[in-house]
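Posting this for the archive.
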Amino acid sequence: MDLTPLLAQLRSDYCLVASQLQGQRLMLCLGSPLLITAVVGAMPDPERIVAAATSAPAALPLVARHRPHLLLLSDQLSEGCGVELARDVKRLHPATRVVLVISGTPKRSRVASAITAGCEAVLRADALGAGGELMAIRTICSGGVVIDRELEAECRHVRSRSSLLSNRESQVLQRVLHGDSNHEIARQLFLSVDTVKCHVSRAVQKLQARDRTHAAVRGLQLGLLEWP
């Protein structure tokens, strides 16, 4: 695939990502040292990268030490499993936003585990390179969730859960997927901010989620929400 025509747009996108990462710490955990070198070299603001590792055993202590705002993670590592690492990071450090890249032919169980782990973004490696990963970073920096449509479709099991969330809870959670704040949701749905908070809290409880973002991911996995 010839990406030469996209180089100018990619440079522009990287600059936009750099501006959104102002003041935020970024960590890399990728299975290949060469890939880490390439990502660091491509970043317009590489000092934002506070740590890098190629294995799960090395990465988890680094997350605890540096508390990155964003972790870019591949599922295939030199040691350990990236999906299991993502689950551990979200359990121990839920404030860290995780972008997980799935390589090769994805197994349904692995993709499902990545989604239920609460990753803010789950992407296919072979879909990267045309700015998709940059768009994902911009979206999750705004509080949204990005899961590759083909990956989600591969692991989705359609269930009859129409009564799990109320119509209003679904509407509110749908706006969470777009990265909207409670104040923005209240304005769009003509509700009070306290009412929005109540709907979000109930959705989190019903979906047994850790927080509003995890609830949105769970809603996607269960087929309760539409893609943003």
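Residues 4-155 form a domain with the Rossmann fold fold (CATH 3.40.50.2300). The beta strands are 26-29, 49-53, 70-74, 97-102, 121-124, 146-147.
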